[in-house]
Each structure stands twice: as C-alpha cells, then as structure tokens.
C-alpha cells in the first residue's frame, strides 16, 4: 500500500496567494498520487480558485480558516490572537498529526514563532534553525541559520551543523556534504568569540564532514554545501544575496538597454542569458525548512509562484520518506548523551 | 604658500607592486604640485621602476626598506620582527610626523595591527575602524567597520558612526550623510543584543543623521550613506559583495558566450555593458581609511592598479585639508565629556 504524505498548505500567505498557491497544489497532486494537500484558508476564496482546475478527487481538501496574518503584524501577538488564521490552523494540523508538514509563503516572523510554539521542538533540539537554499556558481548550498535565534551559543551552532548536514544529504541528495562555518579568515585562530568556541566542537564532531572556516567571498563560488552561522549573520548573507543579485541584474539590464547597438545585442543574447541566470535561482529546490520540529514547517519565498509551491510540497514528501526527523532525533540525543 | 601633503606609499605591497604602485605615484605628482610621495621599499627595485617615467623633481623620494611582509605572515609577528619592512618604515614616518598618511595595498592584517601599534589612536578613540567604500545602485556607501575589532561593544559602534559620518561628509562630499545600523528588520525592537543596545545611542546622538536600521537587502540599493556594523558582519558584507559580484558577472559572461547567437549579441552589447559595470566599482574613490589614528592609514585593494593608487593619494590630501582628524578629536572628546 502506498503511503500518503499529507501537506497543510497556507493558501492565504504570500504575494501571489491564493492564485499561485492553489495552482501549485493542483500541479503537485496531478503529478503524484502519494500526496494529499490540505488547502488552509478562506473556504469560499479557495474553492473559487479550485474551480479553475481539474485534479484527482480526494487529493485536495479545503480547510476553512477565516483569519489572515498580515506581513506587518507583530508575530507573537498574531499567533496568540488569530487562532483561526491559516497559519495557526495549518500548524495545529501538524501538531495533531493530521498533516506531516506545513508550507507557507506568509510572514517569516509568524512562521518562526508558530513553528516553535505550536508545532514544538524535537526533544533535545535546543533551537530550530531556518535553512534556506542559496544558489552558487557550482550548484546550491544550505545556509543555516537564517531564523530568529539571535545571540546563539556554540552548542546551538553544532546542532545546526548536524541538522543541516542531515537535510542536505538526505533531502537534497548531496553525498557527505562539506560543512563550513562562516568566518573572517580561513585560519582556526581567526574569528569572534562565538566562532572560536564553535570551531573545535565542529572539528571534533564525528557526524559531519567539517571542512573548516569559509569566508563570505567563497560562498557564491560554492565553497561548502552546509554553511553554518548564527542567525544575524545568516540573515545578512541571505538578504544581501537577494539585494545584490537584483541590483546587479538591474545594472546589467540598464547597460544592455543604454545604446542602440547594445539593444540589438541584447535581443540576440537575452534567451541564452535568461537560461544561465535561471540556473542561479534556488527556488526550484523548494522553500526553507525550519528544522528540528515535531513535523516539518517550510517557509517559501513571499513572491513564490506555483512552481516553487509544487517543489516545496515534493520536498515535504522526501523529508518524510527519508525519515529526517527520526535521524535528527537519533543524532541529537546521541550527542547529548555523549556530552554527559 | 602652498601646503604640501606628504604621503608615504608602500611600494612593495599588493599584487601589482612595485609597477602599478610607482605608476600611481608618478601620475599623482604629475597632476598636482601639492603632493609629495615617499616611495617606501627596496631602493634599487623602486628606482629601476622610476626610471621609466618623467615626473616633477623633488615630489617623489625613495625611502629604503629592504624587508617585505608577505600576505600569509601572522600580522603581529610580522610587525614586531620586520622593522625594516616597507609597512613598518612607512608607518613610522607617519608616527614621526614625517608623513601625513600611509597608503598600502599589502596585508590587511599587518596594516590593521601596524595602524594601532605604530601610528596609534587619537586620544578618546577606543578602536580604529576600517571603512571601505562599497558601490550601490545609486552611488556609494561607507561600510564601517570591516577591520579587526571583533566582539565590539555599543560605544565602539557609536564612535564608528560618528567617524564614518565625518569622513563621508568631508572627504567623499555627501552632505548630511544618512547613518544606518545593519539589522535583521526595520523595527527598533529587532536585532541581537549588540544592535538593540547600540540603537538608542545612535538615535540620541546629535552629531549624526541617524535614519534607523538597514536590512542587508537594502544596502546595494543605496539605503544609507554610512552603514554601521561590527567588524565580523562588516567583513561578511564586504567579502560577499566581492564574491557575489564576480560570480554573477561570471554567470552572465557564460550566458553571453553560450550560443552563437548570444555571442553575436555580446559583441554588440559589451562596450555599453562594461561601462555600466564600471560604474558599479568603488575603486575610483580610493582605498579604505583606517580611521581614528594619529595620522591617516589607507588600505587599498590587493589588486590595486595605478588609478586606485593615485586616487588614494588624492584621498590623503582631502583628508588632511579637511582636517578630519581634528574634527574626529573634537567630536570624540566632546561626547566623552558628556558621558561622564
């Protein structure tokens, strides 16, 4: 008998909700029969969208959630007050084991708070990290942590490294992933207090393939598969990646459009250029998992289109099939025992 | 009578030394009569280079320094042992007031250590920050601190903000520069402990035009003129800027060269493209000043060519003419007295 992965999908979160979200769900269940999607949101709105499509009966169910958490709302308050929001209803389904995973393109802050307070941590996990995939020259890397764990301690970073390594190997499929810690130089004696204290913990950890420090310059060149840092630095890396990429693409577009000659050149070059730039886009790998929870929570980009939503749903299937949480639990508890 | 700015220039530091360094010095003194350059390095090598050029008599003097500090040498040890290196000799000239400034494309670590230990800090300055200029969509910004001050405290960041603001206004010429602190969200309550403690100090400082937090995403868009952060984060931003820019330009080049049609397009588009990409290059603003010292130390890129060297020499002239250190001294002492 086929096992079904049940995904609660926030139909109301993100810039393109509900249209692209619903489309992403329809595409996912149309290609695979081992998925059930619960579309969580305002029933009438979601059902209206669904009318546009044909899809396998019984693989999509609408769960009514009348409230919406806005992007600007203070997360803690939003989670506490809006019990009938798609985000809270969807996360409660994961908590109650009615769904294996929850996927949302909504407010990052609310997803992080809800993940911790509603879904809850795996026993032994000190802090759940948010781990987006970033594009590199040679492929992709996992950046862990970009969540809300500011002022992290060395033991947190050690757990991030282990969880990131498990995810990269078993979900993304990178064999024996190279784990590195973000630093301001390659030598072990470099760095701030946090990095200096974390370095030996990573070096001595048997569960990961630690390759040492990575300078930020080497990240886009694909210098490591799992890039460990505390959330403030991770956030800076992630946001700068987005901002600088869009700035540079804009600068290049202006260059291509600046003279008649360059415009003619652009016409000829654009198809090939778009293709290589598309490869430098991590959205095909799904969203960012919030790791270490009793279930899976995935944060997709606010600007997600159907394709990223579909890929995030597939990501949940792989996560469950590969028993990621069971592996995390085992590794985390193992090392806690060793420490004692 | 014309006042002369005296610049000690490390003829041996950087990837293109001594050729491009000497050329940069010759170009500077050939265009302006108010500059004297001391070329510090191995006398025979430097004099051999100088033979290639005609330049105003008496505006260049060679100072013999037989030793060279290599890029890979541990900085503290190198500064202590190699008393006859161009770096130590040049910095001692600043200390002895024989030169107003020292410019080097050599080892960053050695420059930071030498600046502190040889040239020394202005009274009241707690830590001297390294402040490179980074390119943005709309112009340039000063990123302060990217030096060696890891685990900085709020009062350090306040001083960085003041010194950066003075530099940006008086050397770069940005009127009433907008000062922002790097953060993971725009709201005051966001951030790690350091940012939360620093925020009110910046907000209440009368000497700067503080505009609040800046997310890393907004940095390339030109969201602030003076971007304040501690050195670890600054280093990550600076290095990622370099790495991601070169990666993206590489990706785009590959795209342009991938098909016959795109190659033809590239031929037509490249001149215009090169022009806009050149605007996204901060080297025309000279090197990164190490601020708060008894004199000026400027770190230029390791890959500096003559043009950047020349601009860095001009930067030293403006720095002296605008009496930056006098202003810093006044502002720093002012606020120290207020604090007591």
Architecture overview:
2 copies of one chain form a homodimer. By secondary structure, the first copy, chain A, is of the alpha/beta class. Chain A has helices at residues 19-31, 43-50, 75-81, 86-95, 108-119, 154-172, 193-203, 231-256, 260-279, 306-321, 324-339; strands spanning 5-10, 35-41, 60-64, 101-104, 133-135, 140-144, 178-182, 209-214, 226-228, 288-290, 296-299. In chain A, helix 7 links the parallel strand 7 and strand 8 (209-214). The model of chain A has no long low-confidence stretch (mean pLDDT 92). In chain A, strands 3-2-1-4-11-10 form a 6-stranded mixed β-sheet, sandwiched between helices. At the A-B interface, helix 8 and helix 9 of A face helix 8 and helix 9 of B.
Give a concise summary.
The structure is a homodimer of 340-residue chains. Chain A is of the alpha/beta class. The first copy, chain A, is built from 11 helices and 11 strands.
Which SSEs are present, and which pair or pack?
The structure is a homodimer of 340-residue chains.
Chain A: E1 5-10, H1 19-31, E2 35-41, H2 43-50, E3 60-64, H3 75-81, H4 86-95, E4 101-104, H5 108-119, E5 133-135, E6 140-144, H6 154-172, E7 178-182, H7 193-203, E8 209-214, E9 226-228, H8 231-256, H9 260-279, E10 288-290, E11 296-299, H10 306-321, H11 324-339
Parallel strand pairs in A: 1-2, 1-4, 2-3, 4-11, 6-9, 7-8, 7-9
Antiparallel strand pairs in A: 5-6, 10-11
Helix pairs in contact in A: 1-10, 3-5, 4-5, 6-7, 6-11
């Amino acid at each position: 008998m086929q096992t079904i992965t049940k995904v609660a999908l926030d139909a109301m979160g993100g810039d393109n909700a509900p249209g692209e979200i619903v489309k992403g769900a329809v595409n996912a269940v149309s290609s695979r029969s081992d998925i059930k999607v619960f579309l969580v949101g305002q029933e009438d709105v979601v059902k209206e969208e669904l009318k546009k499509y044909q899809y396998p009966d019984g693989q999509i169910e609408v769960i009514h959630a009348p409230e919406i958490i806005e992007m600007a709302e203070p997360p803690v308050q939003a989670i506490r007050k809006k019990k009938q929001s798609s985000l809270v209803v969807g996360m409660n389904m994961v908590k109650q084991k009615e769904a294996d995973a929850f996927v949302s393109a909504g407010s990052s802050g609310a997803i992080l708070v809800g993940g911790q307070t509603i879904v809850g941590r795996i026993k032994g996990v000190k802090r759940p990290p948010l781990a987006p995939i970033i594009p590199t020259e040679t492929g992709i890397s996992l950046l862990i942590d970009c969540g809300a764990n500011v002022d992290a301690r060395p033991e947190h970073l050690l757990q991030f490294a282990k969880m990131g390594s498990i995810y990269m190997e078993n979900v993304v499929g990178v064999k024996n992933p190279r784990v590195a810690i973000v630093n301001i130089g390659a030598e072990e004696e470099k760095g701030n207090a946090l990095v200096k204290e974390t370095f030996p913990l990573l070096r001595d950890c048997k569960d990961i393939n630690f390759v040492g420090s990575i300078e930020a310059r080497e990240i886009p060149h694909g210098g490591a598969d799992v890039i460990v840092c505390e959330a403030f630095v991770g956030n800076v890396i992630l946001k700068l990646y987005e901002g600088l990429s869009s700035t540079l693409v804009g600068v290049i577009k202006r260059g291509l459009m600046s003279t008649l000659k360059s415009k003619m050149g652009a016409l000829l070059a654009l198809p090939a250029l778009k293709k290589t730039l598309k490869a430098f886009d991590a959205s095909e790998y799904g969203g960012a998992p919030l790791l270490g929870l009793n279930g899976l929570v995935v944060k997709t980009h606010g600007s997600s289109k159907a394709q990223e939503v579909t890929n995030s749903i597939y990501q949940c299937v792989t996560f469950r099939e590969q028993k990621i949480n069971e592996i995390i639990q085992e590794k985390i508890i193992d090392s806690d025992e060793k420490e004692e």
